Amino acid sequence: IAGFVSVVSYGLYKLKYRRDQKVSIHLIHMRVAAQGFVVGAVTLGVLYSMYKDHIRPRFFSEPKK
Questions:
Q1: pLDDT digit string (tens) for the chain, length 65 residues
Q2: What span, in angstroms and rounded, lies between the C-alpha atoms of 29 and 14?
């Protein structure tokens, strides 16, 4: 949520002070930034899931008796 708010805030700030850049170009840049953020968030989620399911049980579980 914090990433979403920061991307939207940055986008609105840059939209106000875009000088002579067209709105369509600005929206394309914001879309690419948002897609990059989503890809990063999904990648971190997958890595955490792999750690939780495979690495942590193997190295940090107590041996069975």
A1: 787 788 788 888 888 887 788 888 888 988 898 899 889 999 999 999 999 998 888 888 766 66
A2: 11
